[in-house]
Amino acid sequence: MPMPGTGRRGILVTVAAVAAVSLGVAAFYLARNPASLARAAAHLAPDRSNDEAGAQRAAAGSTAAGLHAARFSDSGRLLRPQDPDRWVFMGASVGLGYNAGEFDPERPGMFQVVSMEPSAYAYFQEHGAYADGTMFLLSFYATQRNEGEESGLTQGDLDSFEIHLIDKGLFEDGRAFYPFAKDDSEAPALPPGNPCVQCHLRQGVFDGTFVQFYPVMRKQIPEHLRRKSG
What we know:
alpha+beta; 5-stranded antiparallel β-sheet; two-stranded antiparallel sheet; 6 helices; 30% helix; globular
């Protein structure tokens, strides 16, 4: 008659017990040795060094300021922000455009509302500069004309939006622009040297941004740091 615990079930139980003890010893050792724990975690982490999209996301997120708000798809497209209604309001305009023609009140153009990603705004308030990973959101809304006692122009429905992502280490121009249709979940960047980049670098009074139109930020930038008067 076999001794208790020497059958197949007994062997499995014994192996499981030994494994549990070994894991317990390993866990105790790693808990007492954080450096070893970090090395073990790094060894077990998947290697994404050859994944171009993963490298781009890592470059966008690994900034000195630690801004990680920008999210990318596997193909490198910028993903739609999850919480744009929580972004910090910068300013709004009606009919502001690139042409030099006079404003036509009969055809005023769209409402344009600019907001800034909260962690980027917090960094700017503390340091007076933009961190890599800073995002501005420019939203285009239909313009509605009201008559009667409440006459005037009001903001209609969202038509489209654009994200200005600043990252001096990631982009050739130090920034990229991503145009979204109103229902898009992701968008590709415009090519380097596009008209948006050229206009912002030429006309933006502070680091390629139109703070001359943003009362919230304009008062926080000393006059001597502006290239042009707002």
